[in-house]
Write a structure and sequence with these properties.
Elements lengths: L1 E3 L2 H5 L1 H8 L5 E5 L6 E4 L2 H8 L4 E2 L2 H11 L23 H12 L2 H5 L2 H15 L4 E3 H6 L1 H11 L6 H11 L9 H21 L5 H5 L8 H14 L2 H16 L1 H9 L4 H12 L8 E3 L3 E3 L2 E3 L4 E4 L1 H4 L34 H18 L4 E2 L21 E3 L3
Parallel strand pairs: 1-2, 3-9
Antiparallel strand pairs: 2-3, 4-6, 5-11, 6-9, 7-8, 10-11
Helix pairs in contact: 7-9, 7-18, 10-11, 11-13, 14-15, 14-16, 14-18, 16-18
């Protein structure tokens, strides 16, 4: 049986994972396009899959599998320079690309961002203070990480709304009317201009480091890596803040505990990443040869998704897996993935998350939902678990 992932799944994937897990650590799913994927649910199975070289990510190999098995039925974006980055590559290409980014993504650069993040967060909160109610995503959760990643890359994006539409399209939205190919084309054109400017006038930013003489990236790889850094560098943090705030508001005792003891916030960020993190599933892989997951043999040439959110609530790995406890030892969560594709930006996401929740709860300790929880809506997105809006009341 192949499970259809529709509206109710995107609103509450954890309920489905809990049900499916009773039948084993893997389930076959589709998104209404007739193209099946195998979804791995278990923590240990997912962790093993993320480190298994038989599960490949090479973009050309993936498209060959799709063209051979499902001609004319694939709804994803076409091959493009913008997709040629380390998240869509296997070794040795992945090794070379990640090395280039790691050289640019230094601890010094991340540490230097603390005052930028704090000042940006405080400025956004100042802007919110004149309102009794706001959409927290639009007023705070989105502009904060956008400003930070643009500062890190020294990219001038005047129209943040357009930028957000680009990124929401490119992280895998399944909503009707979204033109992924067009979004990719527009963003790549923008990035080519930015990269050319860096060549002519390099600075101390990460993009300048990537286009340097020793960067070893060709034009397509440069565009792809710049796109990946911009999207992954902010989209996940937007929804870490959004999903995390909702999780705190769903149980007032969680929020009050952090207000009373702000020292718990860094640990709470880790628990929020596990409890309802922004990344629902890891990006697509395909089997280079048959693999066995539990009692299921997945043949060669099949598409595989690893359910990070499912693994993070696997009761075989985490006690009280569906509960929230910032004092529990949860650092082994899969919120940043595992293996060679482990998120290179994890230190930045942790820093942004800790500052965001600290400043938000200090300024508005009485924050609460401004609508009934049943009115909240979620994006149709396989990769990112994301609210469309988060209306909050800032004070009692």
């Amino acid at each position: 049986m192949t499970e259809l992932l529709g509206d109710h799944f995107f609103a509450n994937p954890h309920a489905y994972y809990r049900l499916w897990r009773e039948d084993g650590p893997v389930v076959r799913v589709h998104f209404g396009d007739g193209v099946p994927r195998w979804l791995i649910l278990g923590y240990e199975e997912g962790r093993a899959a993320l480190a298994d070289p038989r599960l490949c990510k090479d973009i050309d190999g993936l498209e060959a599998v799709i063209a051979r098995k499902y001609p004319g039925r694939w709804q994803g974006p076409p091959t493009h320079d913008g997709l040629r980055h380390m998240l869509n590559a296997d070794p040795p290409t992945h090794t070379r690309l990640r090395k280039a980014v790691s050289r640019a993504f230094t601890p010094r650069r991340i540490a230097a961002l603390r005052p930028v993040i704090e000042q940006t967060a405080l400025g956004l909160l100042d802007g919110m203070a004149d309102h009794d109610e706001v959409d927290l995503l639009q007023a705070f959760a989105s502009p904060l990480p956008v400003a930070v990643i643009c500062h890190l890359l020294d990219v001038d994006i005047q129209d943040h709304a357009t930028f957000r539409e680009w990124t929401k399209a490119l992280v895998g939205t399944l909503e009707p009317g979204v033109d992924q190919a067009r979004a990719l084309q527009e963003m790549v054109a923008f990035l080519r201009k930015m990269l050319q400017r860096k060549r002519l006038d390099p600075g101390e930013d990460m993009l300048s480091a990537l286009v340097g003489d020793d960067a070893e990236l060709d034009e397509g790889e440069l565009v792809g890596m710049a796109l990946l850094l911009l999207i992954a560098g902010h989209e996940t943090t937007v929804n870490l803040i959004g999903n995390g705030t909702l999780a705190l508001l769903q149980d007032r005792s969680r929020l009050d505990r952090l207000v009373m003891d702000p020292a718990l916030i860094p640990d709470a960020v880790e628990e929020l990443l596990r409890f309802d993190g922004p990344v629902n599933m890891a990006t697509l892989r395909f089997t280079a040869e048959p693999i066995t997951v539990g009692d299921t043999v997945i043949p060669a040439g099949e598409m595989v998704l690893v359910g990070l959110a499912a693994g993070n609530r696997d009761p075989r790995r985490f006690s009280d897996a569906h509960g929230f406890d910032p004092t529990a030892e949860r650092t082994a969560h899969l919120g940043f993935g595992h293996g060679i594709h482990y998120c290179v930006g994890a230190p930045l996401a942790r820093l942004e998350g800790a500052i965001a929740f600290s400043t938000l709860l200090q300024r508005f300790p009485d924050i609460e939902l401004a609508v009934d929880e049943s009115e909240l809506r979620w994006h149709h997105n396989a990769i990112i678990h994301a609210l469309k809006r988060l209306p909050v009341r800032l004070r009692k």
